[in-house]
Design brief:
Elements lengths: L1 H28 L1 H19 L4 H31 L5 H33 L1
Length: 123
């Protein structure tokens, strides 16, 4: 019985390790997420500077996380699409455009959230 618990625990640790490795790989290799990460750091610094409320922190962190997660999923979709069909293909292009569009939508809404939080504080 204890073997199954150890096995489950060890498997969970391995899963977390793989996820961490994927996040680091994403940050090291993808220019878009580097920019988004930098913007996330800058608005986090702004949050401390302008002493935003707990609710504003929660919304800001959710927006940052949403954009970065969407970019990660977009990157994975692009990698799978390129693996399945390396040469240019209309349907693969459409799939990649839709995935990129999801990131764009998340980024637009995150920007709107940023304006709602910071515009009254700056002006």
């Amino acid at each position: 019985m204890s073997n199954k618990k150890e096995s489950f625990f060890i498997n969970r640790l391995k899963s977390v390790g793989f996820a961490f490795k994927g996040a680091v790989l994403l940050l090291k290799t993808e220019a878009s997420i580097k920019i988004q990460f930098t913007i996330g750091v800058l608005v986090t610094i702004a949050g401390f500077y302008y002493q935003i409320s707990t609710t504003e922190w929660l919304i800001q962190l959710l927006a940052i996380g949403l954009v970065m997660c969407a970019e990660g999923v977009n990157t994975a979709i692009e990698a799978i699409a390129d693996f399945i069909h390396p040469e240019r293909h209309e349907k693969i292009g459409l799939i990649k455009d839709i995935a990129a569009g999801a990131v764009f939508i998340a980024a637009i809404f995150a920007t709107i959230i940023g304006f709602i939080i910071y515009f009254p504080k700056v002006f």
